[in-house]
Inverse folding.
């Protein structure tokens, strides 16, 4: 949904978890363990499709970068994502992310 091409060589991912704020590159993410799996994706609109996913588990990302938990050790309730242009954003409950 972006209106222009992304320059992955200079792309930065902004991470915010409570007071902790830092940037990563796509290469930083690719250095984490990669897993793959196949699932039957079921849309709330009634259609489904067998889909394959590959990448880093969100739990591995959280553990590696020590994010996603409050100072009392409890998980935040939601995870939010936003495109660089701010035109698309979504929040997903932590239980689903994990």
């Amino acid at each position: 949904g972006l209106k222009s091409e992304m320059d992955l060589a200079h792309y930065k991912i902004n991470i915010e978890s409570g007071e902790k704020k830092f940037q990563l590159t796509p290469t930083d993410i690719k250095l984490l363990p990669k897993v793959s799996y196949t699932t039957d994706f079921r849309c709330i609109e009634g259609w489904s499709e067998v889909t394959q996913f590959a990448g880093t588990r969100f739990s591995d990302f959280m553990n590696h970068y020590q994010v996603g938990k409050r100072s009392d050790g409890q998980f935040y309730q939601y995870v939010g994502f936003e495109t660089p242009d701010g035109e698309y954003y979504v929040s997903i409950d932590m239980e689903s992310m994990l």
Remarks:
- The beta strands are 13-17, 20-24, 35-42, 48-55, 78-82, 89-93.
- DSSP finds three helices and six strands in the chain.
- The mean pLDDT is 92.
